[in-house]
Design goal:
Number of domains: 1
CATH class: Mainly Beta
Distance between the termini: 59 Å
Structural class: mainly beta
Largest sheet: 8 strands, antiparallel, barrel
CATH topology: Porin
Order of helices and strands: HEEEEEEEEEEHH
Strand content: over 45%
Number of helices: 3
Length: 184
């Protein structure tokens, strides 16, 4: 019996872990309890990325994408975030659509909670049959400006992708629930 290299089981695992986390008893020390000072928070970061791929590309191994991340905050401290990762990606010479789960953790904050450095994990499924596992590191300034680095490995095609990202959260520009909204 052989095990095929695929990540199609990861969404089910992620949902199971999130449901198990929601079943934990709520205590004052429980980091997954929504505190009175942080109600439900939804974010919609949008990033433009570009970079290089290995083992692909004609005439150059170039990639660029528009990425949208619908995300909810999972804990009262605003550190754990989960949601989806979607992208329309140009991987020379093709355009593909990618979708999958995303889990991130805010490893550092400065000033307001909205300023921070996030480490993210994604498991993506491509419209052209690819399966990608990716890690990203993104600096976020009040959700108004984002800059990051993303590295992914398409395990189906055995290739890597390295990208630099610039982006923002349009909800922050148009009065979305930011930390200043939560203080009112």
């Amino acid at each position: 019996m052989t095990i095929e290299p695929t990540v199609k089981w990861l969404p089910g695992l992620l949902v199971s872990l999130l449901m198990a986390g929601g079943a934990l008893p709520a205590t004052a020390q429980d980091p997954f309890t929504m505190g009175p000072y942080r109600p439900f928070q939804f974010m919609l970061p949008i990033d433009f990325t570009q970079g290089l791929t290995t083992d692909r590309g004609s005439p150059v191994p170039y990639t660029a994408s528009l990425r949208v991340y619908p995300i909810v905050v999972l804990d009262s401290h605003g550190r754990w975030r989960a949601g989806a990762s979607t992208s329309l990606t140009f991987r020379n010479p093709k355009v593909e659509f990618w979708v999958g789960p995303r889990l991130s953790y805010r490893v550092m904050t400065w000033g307001l909670d909205e300023n921070g450095l996030d480490l993210a994990f994604e498991a993506l499924f491509g419209s052209d049959g690819g399966d990608e596992l990716a890690l990203g590191l993104t600096g976020d300034l009040a959700r108004l400006f984002r800059i990051g680095f993303r590295a992914g490995r398409d395990i189906t095609r055995d290739e890597f992708r390295f990208e630099i990202a610039l982006g923002s959260d349009p909800l922050a520009w148009f009065g979305g629930n930011t930390e200043s909204d939560l203080e009112r």
